[in-house]
Amino acid sequence: MANLAANPWALFPADVAVATITGGTGLTLNADGTVTITTTGALTFNTTGVPPAFWFTVINATAAAYNGFYDLISGLSGATSFVMKPQFVIPAGTAQSGGGTIGQCIYPWEVRIEDISWQNPTVAGQVLDLRDRNGNPIWQATSIGAGSQNRGKVFWVSGVTPIQIPSGVVLATID
What we know:
175 residues, mainly beta
């Protein structure tokens, strides 16, 4: 479980909660402005914390109008169908879409990350992918070998959604 109570923050592979959105029909705009999201496999997400983080980020949807930050309305961890409220406006009449990825946003507010490092990946070629709550890349890196370290300066970001942390630990110094 991510340690967001201490400084630096520590993010682990177990903090990644993502699923592939069903192609073609996985994103449906409902009359009330919510979106029904269907995934190809179970989306098992973190249900602990204060408050529990029931925010999600959609990236790489076929129809870009669906990409962004969502709040969970209904659907349980381990399910494949969810109703979520976008924290942005999707124009009425937007056609059903699909494809892409949904990931749990573990911190939805603005934060200043002074320094960030990915430590101890297990093999070369692994890819780290951290996004902000809207799906914009915060930091993406490729490991060069077991036990290596990759560092960066990030500064202000709007939330943190881990898409891939294949191994090791990500440490983020918060200012």
